[in-house]
Amino acid sequence: MSGIRVLGGEVERGEQILTPDALEFLAMLHRSFAATRDELLARRAERHPLGFLPETAEVRESEWRVAPAPEPLRDRRVEITGPTERKMTVNALNSGARVWLADLEDANTPHWRNVISGQVNLYDAARDQVEFTSPEGKHYALRDDVARPAVVVRPRGWHLPERNIEIEGRPAIGALVDFGLHFFHNAALGKPYYYLPKMESYLEARLWNDVFSAAEAALDVPRGAIRATVLIETIPAAFQMEEILYELRERASGLNAGRWDYLFSIIKYFRDAGEDHVLPDRDSITMTAPFMRAYTELLVRTCHKRGAFAIGGMAAFIPNRRDPEVTERALAKVREDKRREAEDGFDGSWVAHPDLVPVCREVFDAKLGDRPNQLHVLRPEVSVSAERLLDFRSAGGRATMAGLESAVDVGVRYLLSWLGGNGAAAIHNLMEDAATAEISRSQVWQWVHNGVVLDDGTPVTAELVRSVLARTAQRLEGEHLDQAVRLFERVALADEFVDFLTLPAYERIA
To answer: What pTM, to 2 d.p., does this model score?
Structure first.
């Protein structure tokens, strides 16, 4: 294999995944598309005034629809998300959800072992042969009385490298490694379905479509067999929903409202744009905020206009069986959230825990009746302007000391978990992924660099943040605590904003 080197160590059954033919397939994808990917990443640094693109008006105004969805993706009323570790794989397949978002991205620390063992677990899941025995001796196996969900794999975003595979002297592209290994080993079994994260433009969707076309041709898979659902989780992408669907129209199955990453993207894009763009405490920004309503209503209208599915956001709550009152209050909020999405026309929504599958299903069952989806709900009354999408002052709320302390606490706790190899962290009864830490540290950066004054009159300074960080560190413990604290300080207070905290964090893991 000329020009290909595997630098990572041995992983159980890794030789089954990293075969010579699979690596040659990855090299083909890399050689064909790495240069375009690099160009598109460079374009992200060009922050222009946001609006609907005049050069793509014809796409928005002409008549076209995405390809009809395959049978396994026509009913998506409840989707469970989670990393591809072994126990989660079994639990997700047994959950009763219609879709499992098998997450190789934000809920997964890209330790080499996680990268390869995740592919092993997906390989076994595609063949209904996955089981797991815990160190305590508890056995997990696939149930015969539960229908399997469609497995939709989320590869890493375009920005992340895979340094344990080197192709012609440079680290491989994480997105192509994740997609390529899964597609190579499982496409012949059918159902090559993917969730595409972190895109900022229709040109990035075009790149994915070109990758899919090349992959199908290389393995003699029927054109259009790959189906993709795109997460609209960046503010530039919110203005290009129709264009993104158009680029993937042979393969597009829908859009998802990735609301936590969307908030992070807003903060990042407008991080130094002045007080009109400063967001209040994260906990005070709800999905009923006018600018968030504009985003979700536009998503539903766009999807159904083009025959694609609209998938709602994450319910991250983890039921606490030791505290029924806390659980009941949280479940009431989950029901309210899912009911609003169902009434708005969404076709389904996300949950992070198997115990929430029945809650989400109950809400969508009541709305859908005998229908598998709500494609017939066209929402013609929805008209969203650029001004509505960008009206961040409509969030209301305030910046508070409690909000600052929470941001630091959650950010450090998540990094502590991530550095230890767990990208899906249970924090304060919520299942958090990288989006939470991104909001936390970017909001701290924004408050410091825009001279925000808290509601009690305290100015947010680097010194204040460091004192909160020190108090937080005293309450926590763990092998990677010092690293987590230093990393949070770097990405929250550095003069130059770090685009993704996972980039410097990746440098600190094996």
So the answer is: 0.97
pLDDT category at 1 given cuts 50, 70, 90 is low
Per residue in 139-162, pLDDT (tens digit) is 999 999 999 999 999 999 999 999
Q: Which residue has the tokens 């899941």?
A: 125
Q: What is the mean pLDDT of the chain?
A: 96
C-beta atoms surrounding 9 within 10 Å: 11
Of the residues 76, 77, 154, 441, only one is catalytic, namely: 154
- pLDDT tens for each residue of 483-506: 999 999 999 999 999 999 999 999
- 3-class secondary structure for 399-410? CCHHHHHHHHHH
Angle formed at CA 166 by CA 160 and CA 169, multiple of 5 degrees: 110
Pairwise CA distance, residues 310 & 349, whole Å: 9
Active site residue 433: yes
Distance CA 487, CA 506 (A): 11
The C-alpha atoms of residue 272 and residue 160 are separated, in whole angstroms, by 24
Catalytic position from the list 76, 306, 433, 441: 433
In terms of phi and psi (left: phi > 0; alpha: psi -120 to 50; beta: otherwise), the region of 185 is: alpha
Known catalytic residue: 409?
no
Distance of CA 60 to the CA centre of its chain: 26
